């Protein structure tokens, strides 16, 4: 199995967890902060999508799905920003009242990432995309990093959903 195939499989996994978390979720559960000062499922999934979207746009010189497909308007959130460095107060203002549109956004980001990765050649993974680090960051390292981050946030969202009484019989 080659690296492109592995990355393609790897990228689908956090998005599948996101779909499971959103399946049948109520707006209240989506926006609940189980402990004051912690992030909601809405923030975690929004941030996961935005982080992948922003970094993918930088890697591919393509527009962000967020603004290109007007998800910021559809979800009533700012066009700028993706949660990095937000204060607790700023993060708590991320409220999403339409789980279906959030899921549609995550699906569109997954599709953009999949399309981008499938268009790569194995040698493209060695391209240095950020030389401000030592060692410099390659395309492969950046892709693994953004997929890993999305997986961690998807897992956090699933944990919160479970803490809110999610049906334990779900896969």
Polypeptide structure, described:
This protein has about 170 residues and is mainly α. The protein contains 8 helices and 2 strands. It has helices spanning about 5-20, 25-30, 40-60, 65-70, 70-75, 90, 100-120, 140-165; strands at about 130, 135-140. It has a two-stranded antiparallel ribbon. A hairpin with a 6-residue loop joins β1 (about 130) and β2. The radius of gyration is 16 Å and the shape is globular. It starts with a helix and ends in an 8-residue tail after the last helix. The model has no long low-confidence stretch (mean pLDDT about 90).
Write the layout of secondary structure elements.
Blueprint: H1 3-22, H2 27-31, H3 41-60, H4 65-68, H5 71-75, H6 88-92, H7 99-118, E1 128-130, E2 137-138, H8 139-163
Antiparallel strand pairs: 1-2
Helix pairs in contact: 1-7, 1-8, 3-7, 3-8
Defining traits:
171 residues, globular, mainly alpha, two-stranded antiparallel ribbon
SSE-based structural type: mainly alpha
- Helix content class: 55-70%
Largest sheet: spatial strand order: 1-2
Beta-strand content: under 5%
Oligomeric organization of the protein chains: single chain
Q: How would you describe the shape?
A: globular
Rg from alpha-carbon coordinates: 16 Å
Order of helices and strands: HHHHHHHEEH
Q: Tell me how many strands there are.
A: 2
Distance between the termini: 27 Å
Give average pLDDT, whole number. 92
Regions with little confidence, pLDDT below 50 for 5+ residues: none
The biggest sheet, with number of strands, parallel, antiparallel or mixed sense and barrel status, is: 2 strands, antiparallel
């Amino acid at each position: 199995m080659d690296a492109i195939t592995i990355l393609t499989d790897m990228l689908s996994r956090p998005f599948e967890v996101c779909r499971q978390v959103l399946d049948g979720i109520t707006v209240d559960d989506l926006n609940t902060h189980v402990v004051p000062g912690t992030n909601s499922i809405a923030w975690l999934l929004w941030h996961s999508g935005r982080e992948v979207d922003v970094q993918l746009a930088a890697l591919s010189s393509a527009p962000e799905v967020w603004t290109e497909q007007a998800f910021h308007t559809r979800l009533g959130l700012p066009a700028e920003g993706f949660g990095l460095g937000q204060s607790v107060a700023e993060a708590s203002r991320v409220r999403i009242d339409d789980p279906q549109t959030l899921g549609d956004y995550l699906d569109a980001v997954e599709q953009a990432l999949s399309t981008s990765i499938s268009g790569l050649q194995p040698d493209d993974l060695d391209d240095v995309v950020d030389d401000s680090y030592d060692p410099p960051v390659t395309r492969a390292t950046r892709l693994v990093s953004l997929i890993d981050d999305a997986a961690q946030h998807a897992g956090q969202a699933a944990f919160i959903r479970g803490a809110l009484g999610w049906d334990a019989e779900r896969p």
